[in-house]
């Protein structure tokens, strides 16, 4: 689980992916300490959690190579469902890190009472979709033209995974 000391690395990783402009429907990087600390405090107050993978031996020691967050839904009747979000640093893609992070996080989610995980991704994110399917997620629908990215409309794909089937 993350520590306050991990915040800068988590948000550096997030901001690198934001700058790529193809994987997240976000344009603005997170740079303020207030925003970072508010997210961290909210994470624990709401029972959400975040798992990170760090490059302990690389050029940038302790670089956050990837992160997975599980957030609770806002409805009491959906306490068994978590919303998964994942970001993998571009230098660590195609190495199995995303798969390992998701599989590890699924075990934690199951221990925390989750029996189902949902996620959404850009329909153009073929690499991510392949990873999610490999991790047991199935496509269940989409929102048409949900995002306007680089002056083109992009659909949002919705996926789910039942943890008792894993």
Automatic annotation (TrEMBL):
<dbReference type="InterPro" id="IPR000182">
    <property type="entry name" value="GNAT_dom"/>
</dbReference>
<dbReference type="InterPro" id="IPR016181">
    <property type="entry name" value="Acyl_CoA_acyltransferase"/>
</dbReference>
<dbReference type="Pfam" id="PF00583">
    <property type="entry name" value="Acetyltransf_1"/>
</dbReference>
<feature type="domain" description="N-acetyltransferase">
    <location>
        <begin position="1"/>
        <end position="164"/>
    </location>
</feature>
<protein>
    <recommendedName>
        <fullName>N-acetyltransferase domain-containing protein</fullName>
    </recommendedName>
</protein>
